[in-house]
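Margin note from the TA: students keep mixing up input and output lines. Inputs are the sequences; the output is the structure of the whole complex. Example:
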Amino acid sequence: EAGVAQSPRYKIIEKRQSVAFWCNPISGHATLYWYQQILGQGPKLLIQFQNNGVVDDSQLPKDRFSAERLKGVDSTLKIQPAKLEDSAVYLCASSPGQGAIGYTFGSGTRLTVV
Amino acid sequence: AQSVSQHNHHVILSEAASLELGCNYSYGGTVNLFWYVQYPGQHLQLLLKYFSGDPLVKGIKGFEAEFIKSKFSFNLRKPSVQWSDTAEYFCAVSQGDNFNKFYFGSGTKLNVKP
């Protein structure tokens, strides 16, 4: 089966600019996650969607980060305005549903803020 | 909040050496435990998982892990490593009531010398 698709693979922006990342989960997967992985650290969950609803966004910096999954399929994560400390790999993952096995990660988008 | 510790940040082994990577977590309740591997340039892949039952879990590629509840540990082992095991290894934990909210350790980079 096709994996979790993410684009772009790499992005370099200046601080205070805005940026958006796109994720297309595995077909039929109800649950979608965005993680932030800063260099030298493990991934940190930013937001979890169940279909088009937010399940958990407790670790999302809502003053600058936003995410949506309007039709319950693909999703976008936006940062506006970006800060230097936002430099990281942004990972998308999906799973068939709450409590289900089959959690699959995408290859990520590497963001560099200069 | 849950914390996950991986004390070995970088491990260098020769081929055929035995491997043990440490993982400790902080949550005292029911946990689900995972080890993920990330080969250079690739996405995170599941090596093995523990939900309940036999605390000795066998995964893919000859890896195994042992859950020791009294020590809050889930160490990863392999009797004889190969050059192709060169990768970064992440321990992850989710709490029983929120299966899909993963807390990751900071990762261990394994370098196997041929």
